[in-house]
Amino acid sequence: MQKPDERILVVAKNKLFADVPFSGLQPLNNFDSHQNLIEQNQEFLWRSEMETDTSYKQIIPYLVFTYDNKLFVMQRRSDASESRLKNKYSLGIGGHIRQEDITGKNIFDWAQREFDEEVDYQGTYTMKPIGLINDDSNLVGQVHLGCAFLLTGDSPNISVKSELKEGTLRSIEECEALYENMETWSQIVFNYLKK
Length: 195
What we know:
By secondary structure, the chain is of the alpha+beta class. It has one domain: Nucleoside Triphosphate Pyrophosphohydrolase. The chain has helices spanning 13-16, 32-41, 47-50, 107-118, 172-178, 184-194, and strands at residues 7-12, 24-27, 43-46, 56-67, 70-76, 89-90, 119-121, 125-134, 144-153, 158-160, 165-171. Strands 1, 2, 3, 4, 5, 6, 8, 9 and 11 form a nine-stranded mixed β-sheet that branches. The protein has a two-stranded antiparallel sheet with strand order 7-10.
């Protein structure tokens, strides 16, 4: 069954990148300038059109959860709605932002809403920005820009709410064994976190 179409947050690519877009993960010390850039140039356009329009980037909060030196790894199932990512492993919790989702004032608020929507977590956590993820080497990456955050929890009690995914905490070594089957963004973030 196909999901109904929805208007999602996008920014024209030429507004995001003054020059040639970077590739990989760009660490940011301060998200304020990026937040302002989004707010000044945001549009809410139909997701069905944006999935193939490379002149726009869909803004995606991308949250990586860690507890006791383990990373929370999800696997999209074969019946997941995003066909290009079926069966892939992901470190990123998050998704598209709809206009009605913007109830807070900044990217941190949007990210926290995504976390609460996607997973069931019993505990507290701290949230720290990692940076921006951009990868134009594949069709999915060409139309998305990730805002990556690291969430450090005080409890291992975390599970995925969606019936289309499953997730478990895994050691760095276990993540390395899954690396070839990870989504590109997860590979990028994992490489950064290993440093």
